[in-house]
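for the writeup, i need someone to sanity check this before i put it in the appendix. the sequnce is what the collaborator sent (i think, or maybe the updated version? ugh). structure was predicted straight from it, no edits. if anything looks off just tell me and ill rerun, i have time this weekend
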Amino acid sequence: MGFRFFKKHWGKGYASEARLACVKYGFEQLQLTSIVGRANSENKASIKVLQKCNLKFGKTFLYNHKPAVLYTINNDTNKNNNS
């Protein structure tokens, strides 16, 4: 997942709302087993959004030669239904 907003729209909750809707759609409609989000390590606001949407820290890595973090959420309900 990735989002970009004009600065005048930062801090209004749009990113959290959009991520929550994407997670719900991905799991309920697309039957995905997991969803991944990433952010540059210095982008604390984006990392906070990932955490608010229940994504869990996975690892650090380089993206475009800059430190970044990877977060993941698993669809445990879908996994249980497919067993």
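The chain has a mean pLDDT of 88. The helical segments are 14-28, 44-52, 76-81.
thx in advance!!
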